[in-house]
What does this fold into?
Amino acid sequence: MKNQVTRILVIHGPNLQLLGDREPEMYGRATLEQINEKLRKEADRLGVELRIVQSNHEGEIVDVIGEASRTADAILINPAAYTHTSVAIRDALAAVSIPAVEVHLSNIYCREDFRRHSLIAPVVAGQVSGFGLESYLLGLRAVIGLVRGG
Ligand code: DQA
It folds into this structure.
């Protein structure tokens, strides 16, 4: 079991496929593909396997999380707008037995009031918010640490 390679499921929520063009002053100029490339490189360096999913659909994200304990050891998720609205995604994360880390490109705590509350934060191991693309890389290292017990 412990000999098997660590598998991380990366989930990007709604509108993140637009990164690069979408409010670059808020989210940076990197496209989702460029973020995924950085994640894959870091994953290779750290010897972990990534499965990366982007979806604009709440139910699809719920489905992917629900299947994750059979196919992954941990979840790295940017729930995007669903951070602030989705009881269903929160419940899905609470239901699976594997750990999760929440990431945000922007610092959600210094933005509009409605973004300052995460429904997801209480059911994940931790959150990284505000470091742009680096949030994902920090989150990846954190989630690998959780699996490996570091
Ligand atoms: C975001 C922050 C959310 O409030 C927003 O809805 C997003 C992106 C971020 O990465 O900073 O779509 O999750």
User: Anything to note?
Assistant: The chain has one domain: 6-148.
